[in-house]
User: What shape does this take?
Amino acid sequence: MDGEKYWNPIIETLPRERLQQIELKRFRELLRWAKDQSPFYKKKLRGIEPEDIRTMEDVAKVPMTEKDELRAAQEGKEPYLYGDLLAVPPERLSVFHQTSGTTGRPVYFPDTYESWQWVVEVWCYILYGAGFRPQDRLFLPFAYNVYIAFWQGHYAAEKLGCEVVPGGALDTQGRIQKAKEVRATALMNTPTYGLHLAEVAKEMGIDPRRDLEVKKMICAGEPMPEPTRLRMEELWGADVYDHIGGTEVGGWGGMCSEKRGMHVIEPHYLLEMVDLETMSKPVPPGTKGVTVITPLCRRCIPLIRFNLKDVMLVMEKPCPCGRTSIRVDEIGGRVDDLRKIRGVFFTPAIVEEVIRSQFPEVMEFETLLTREGAMPVLTLRVEFAPSVAESQVKELRGRIREKLKIRSNLTFEIEIVKPGGLPRYTLKSSRFKDLTKK
Amino acid sequence: MEYDLKAMDREIKLIEESVGRLRELGGGIEVVERNADSILAFTYLLKRNISDILE
Assistant: This one.
């Protein structure tokens, strides 16, 4: 029965043309709202008339919103914290979150009760699509702090009818014990922390596959290349699902049981892809581009054509699950991390893909970009599992170098780090460091 | 399965109207105002998920 397969069978199986009609209508409504209520957009959208936006080509004429503009619209402006971005009276706010600040000063994102419920609602689509049901006991091994993803997951799981166990004030060992004690059937964590949890569990003599009852896991907080997802499934003996989202826009896509890409939550979001070179011309499905997204129903701080600066590839072909939404097939990393090295485009996502798919012996790694004179140098620092014998290291080092060369067309220096020598991340990992800028 | 979207939309509107009447009866007391706001946040979602699909 459709009602069991989908969170909302009415929307999730609509013909694509109808989805697009609704998205265009909502886009016009959001433009009107933003022009009337947001001081930031009042200025930015001067000369744009919502009624003139009839087609996707018209949408592309509306200026994009960049993250730096959001910072500038908040800094030193009233009302304090939110400045020109706020489109509702401050007394209506009920929730505060902020961006991680990885790329600069954090941006503050509040919600009203209504807009927060919408953010939670789109996460219900994500969790339901990933098979979360009222029978699940979801353990979240995190102190969520001011970061949105885990709060969304928490409240959406609760709304779905799952039993939610927050695992904040515990260390990693304590979290593993708690997951065991409560017999958690589901976890939500970053991919990096999922790997770390499994590593620590094994050190404690707990085999996640055998001794825990986790059957599904939803990942958040950082990109998860397919080899990493498969490795997590192997380690945990569970179905591992990815989702895409961010503080500014909420969770906007998630994997269904087919695990072939991530369904965009249409028509709650309008997704556009633009070309890498000009960052303005639309590219069709099947071509890599930069992602531009509009959350269509979040009115507290409206965002119009927000440039995520993530390189992605989307596909329009139907999914066997029956959902008609467009899917993100591949995430190619951040535009900010793209480097041209010796004439070759390099993205750190390639390293993760190679390491996670071919080298289970590697526990942790990081890539450094430095300079020797005028020459850029890429160094991969790797930490092997304690089980790797000294005699294996030379062969492994050579093979990693070779596979990276084949995949990236670039030569890497390989540096071996003793076990535990590289940082472990609970939230956003930072495995690429460009030291040429210092 | 076929869904009667028009009938569902009518019920959603009735909830909104009913909340409006409750508000009037409450005369501004917090317990009614705040809970009415919460109900309206959920009718907003029902409208986005159901009513907007009507042609």
In short: The longest helix of chain B spans residues 5-26. The CA atoms of residues 39 and 49 of chain B lie 15 Å apart. Chain B has one domain: 5-53.
